[in-house]
Amino acid sequence: MKNNHVYFLVVLACFFWGVGFPIAKVGVEVIHPFSFAFIRFSLVFVLFVFLFKLSPFNLLLKLKDNFTILFLMALTGIFLYGVFFLFAVRFAKASDVSLVSGFNPAITALIAAIFLKEKVNLVMIAGIILSFIGVSFIVLKGNFSVLDFNIGSLLMLVATTMWAIYSVLTKKALVRMNLFETVSLVSLIGAVLFLPVAIIFGDLKNFIHYPLKGWLSILYMAVFSTVFAFSAWYKSIEVIGASRSSVFVNLVPVFGVLTSVLFFNESFGLYEFIGGILVIGGVILTNKR
């Protein structure tokens, strides 16, 4: 199959995102979510500039020429997604929040079909439906007669919608900029958006008193869940499209549940195993040529 390396990278990105649910939960339990997000994306911007030797002058030119789409990406994929995601992991189990994120592909595919005119054939639709059933099976604990979401799960549903919009905007942005410029500038704008709320509502002034586990959580989320995962995600959207890439997000709940079991000793039942198999099956089917 062509683009095997791209598929590998997007799966690895989803793994880092899945692990990020319990790790983020550790962080926001000791650091206010707004402060956590501001430090995370500030660090991401600095890392991108130094690791990929980006020219500050060129970045300013790109920001000036593409401000509207970069701002919309930062607003949806960084700020709004970050707010709903971080409060979701604060109010719900890490495994529950990661499972709800699996609803993202259907939303992304719909938005991409409408605005990007991406083709969605019957095989892809079947894969999306299978993945959706798998995630629903996990979220509802195998009992489809009960629909009971807590506040954390509801917040994550909103977050996944923000991510879907962000994914579609990414496709348009990559026509004008390379992925490193895009990630760095979106992270910078996201950090700026988080700064005032972190100062007013957060605990940013007490950053020197943050415990070590809080800083380690921020470091993981910046390096693995953002610098690496975002770069791999952008590359996959650029090569295989928003709809195909979004289906891989179904793997995030699987990785999230597994790591949540390890971090928080959460139980892993038969319904979660069956749901995980359905999710993976949907990913394979959707990307079958």
Mind explaining what this structure looks like?
The chain has 289 residues and is mainly α. The chain is 79% helix and 0% strand. Helix 7 runs antiparallel to helix 13. The longest helix is centred in the last third of the chain and has 29 residues. The protein is globular, with a radius of gyration of 18 Å. The relative contact order is 0.24.
Provide a quick synopsis of the model.
This protein is an all-alpha fold and 289 residues long. Helices cover 79% and strands 0% of the residues.
Supply the key terms:
0% strand, 13 helices, mainly alpha, globular, 289 residues
Radius of gyration: 18 Å
- Compressed to H and E, one letter per element, the order equals HHHHHHHHHHHHH
**What value does the average pLDDT take?**
84
State the helix count. 13
Strand content: under 5%
Largest sheet: none
Distance between the termini: 8 Å
The portion of residues assigned to helices is: over 70%
Structural class: mainly alpha
Give the helix/strand layout.
Elements: H1 4-28, H2 33-51, H3 56-65, H4 67-91, H5 94-100, H6 104-115, H7 122-139, H8 151-173, H9 179-200, H10 212-240, H11 242-247, H12 251-264, H13 270-286
Helix pairs in contact: 1-4, 1-5, 1-10, 1-12, 2-4, 2-9, 2-10, 4-8, 4-9, 5-8, 5-12, 6-8, 7-13, 12-13
